[in-house]
Amino acid sequence: MRTHLLNDTTADRYRRSVTEGIERVAAKLAATDRPFTGIAVDDLAPRIDRIDLDRPLHDTTAVLDELEEVYLRDAVYFHHPRYLAHLNCPVVIPAVLGEAVLSAVNSSLDTWDQSAGGTLIERKLIDWTNERVGLGPAADGVFTSGGSQSNLQALLLAREEAKSDNPAKLRIFASEVSHFSVKKSAKLLGLSADSVVSVPVDHDKRMQTVALARELDRCKRDGLVPMAVVATAGTTDFGSIDPLPEIAELCSQYGVWMHVDAAYGCGLLTSLRNRDRLGGIERADSVTVDYHKSFFQPVSSSALLVRDTATLRHATYHAEYLNPRRMVQERIPNQVDKSLQTTRRFDALKLWMTLRVMGADGIGELFDEVCDLAEEGWRILAADPRFDVVVRPSLSTLVFRHIPSAVTDPADIDRANLYARKALFASGDAVVAGTKVGARQYLKFTLLNPETTADDITAVLDLIAGHAEQYLGESLDRAS
Length: 480
Ligand SMILES: *Cc1c(COP(=O)(O)O)cnc(C)c1O
Known about the structure:
This is Lysine decarboxylase DesA. Belongs to the group II decarboxylase family. Keywords: Decarboxylase, Lyase, Pyridoxal phosphate. The chain is 43% helix and 13% strand. Strand 3, helix 7 (181-188) and strand 4 (196-199) form a beta-alpha-beta unit. With 480 residues, it is of the alpha/beta class. It has a seven-stranded mixed β-sheet with strand order 2-8-7-6-5-3-4, with helices on both faces. The protein has a five-stranded mixed β-sheet with strand order 1-11-12-10-9. Helix 1 (11-31) runs parallel beside helix 3 and helix 6 (147-161) packs across helix 7 (181-188). It is globular. The chain has helices spanning 11-31, 41-49, 60-72, 93-105, 117-133, 147-161, 181-188, 209-221, 244-254, 291-294, 326-329, 348-357, 360-382, 410-427, 454-479, and strands at residues 83-84, 140-144, 170-175, 196-199, 225-232, 257-262, 286-290, 302-306, 387-389, 397-402, 431-437, 440-446. It has three domains: 2-77, PLP-dependent transferase-like (Up-down Bundle); 108-357, 3-Layer(aba) Sandwich (Aspartate Aminotransferase, domain 2); 361-479, Aspartate Aminotransferase, domain 1 (Alpha-Beta Complex), CATH 3.90.1150.10.
């Protein structure tokens, strides 16, 4: 069994084994003609059920053959130009190389004595990102597992900085289309069930600052404590960017922590043409960035940034075995002092490799391309009477729905759109997402693949219209 351990004597096995895996994936990527096979849960589950984990195959090639059956054949492939569903990007090769290196070396970023250069590389990338955000000289941060964790940690810091002895009085303000992790975080932080105040959005799905001011006022008048405002820079559904300068103004007026959730919009930090859309982000107390959404990085790669490094102390605990207090005096950089996690992946290496090979402008170019494509898609949708499109994109999502020519019952329109999404998924021809706007069912394209073209968009819209019409035709037949 020792031959399976990665060490000085097994370099050849390592090379052969990993190369064999890479060859399979490369062949798969080349041969994928649809984003999905459309397989149903009930058809895939038995193949996985059948495998007896207590009877190993002892042969890498055989295991890779098996993996083809249980995973690779029917995976959902984000690199395919007709995968248009969620905030999943195709990944860049330098980052995948970084992933291979980091898992083989297997550094853990909690302490210096488990990572050395890894710690310094992560710190430099945090500084680099902070420079782009403009958070100032005392800024700091840490890599996290994702935007949800970054938001949780930001709100933890905000809760502690609010210095209230009664958590039931704390209030968080976030727009009605902010990410659900805000509410989940409030619950994890022991805040009351009504702690998150939902602020209405305008026609473009941006937080209404007049309403925010009103809510902040009301909060004070009711003797409650405003703990944080969460501004979203790139809402998950619409890509809308809350008015950051006005929100920053209100936060300083009311003395409230300003958190910017830029999990999605952070891609603009590398854009040469559209960076100004993030104007005002530099006034935040904390920022969430998800490199695994708009920097073309493999999952996971994310960070929490803070304006003032001192605020990270709220996540600091010392353990004798790991990061004793004296190490702080000895100036030994232990990232665990800043993190909610202990053992932690060296995800930063992927971004490092990406920046060293492609440069930041390279990422920005790719992100600009998908934003341009969304703009083009919006024009296509707006000109097509079969569809209703919700907002003109600030980033790269399009929310729309099919409006059949003959039907007037809104429930039928909802059902037709739901059906079209499901039918498309089952066909494997394309994958799109869905969401609700008000009470109504909509469809969504999240465009993160620069290989997707306007022709892909047109073709997928035709498929959607076809499925919706077919559904309505059949259900009307049934009704008559
Ligand atoms: C995706 C997203 C999150 C959550 O990030 P994960 O990396 O999925 O945990 C938070 N906020 C916004 C706006 C997002 O789009």
